[in-house]
Amino acid sequence: xxxxxxTETIARDLHEMVVGAVxxxxxxxxxxxxxxxxxxxxxxxLAGQPIRRVWRRAKLIVLxxxxxxxxxxxxxxxxxxxxxxxTGGLVVDDGSLDEAERAYVCVTLTLADGRALxxxxxxxxxxxALMDRTRFADYSGALGPEPLDPATxxxxxxxxxxxxxxxxxxxxxxxxxxxxxxNIYANEALWRAGIDPSREACTLSSTELSTLRTELQAVLxxxxxxxxxxxxxxxxxxxxRGAFVEQLAAYGRAGEPCRRCGRRLVGTHAVDGRSTVxxxxxxx
Length: 284
Hints:
Blueprint: H1 4-18, E1 23-27, E2 34-35, H2 39-46, E3 51-57, E4 60-65, E5 78-83, E6 88-93, H3 99-102, E7 105-111, E8 116-121, E9 127-131, H4 133-141, H5 154-161, H6 168-173, H7 183-193, H8 206-225, E10 266-268, E11 276-278
Parallel strand pairs: 2-9
Antiparallel strand pairs: 1-7, 3-4, 4-5, 5-9, 6-8, 7-8, 10-11
């Protein structure tokens, strides 16, 4: 599933590639991915409107439509809110997209300059929603703070995490506590911080929480620099793979030696039903 680094990469790419472009037409060959709007309403709201901004919130890619540029981004009349989930993604097509890739297109925004912005989703588990300002504010307000926001300092991070009696890995991935962290980067941050993923969050000391925040921010930043992690489906807005997989120290490495102490990494699904990889020698 695209997490914070992957959605941040896509949002940055799209901001460079499509801001200012006018939506000439809309097609929705697979309307089951739409939320809060039907295909006809989606087209009525967007056709003829400019894309003013593309940005990320949590694991969402947000396109501001028809915001007056002299005002703040919150003046956007509409927001397209894309949640890629496991196999979804946005790609800009200048006409050279492989025909096989078009087989999975669910939504297309045809731009006035001749390009197309496709939402592709092999399994159609992701969603494309259309929200007005008020609805988006409510939706976003239910999510936790951003881990890379300067305001998420040690005190704020501790306030999000420390009261939970859940396993620390589960607490990190709770989007109402902290936005954008998923399975890959929870595994990596906990390995870097030397913390057992199954420990109750409330048992972590202030020092451990500070270290965890530092390592989480470091791994997210490093992955953004590498344009995300691609195992199977993730592609950026240009259709390219992310390179951070080469830097992973825990996720996907069960049975291999720990890069810190040399013990064999353990893989389990006992913590939260998802793949958790940790070192029994130096995570405690």
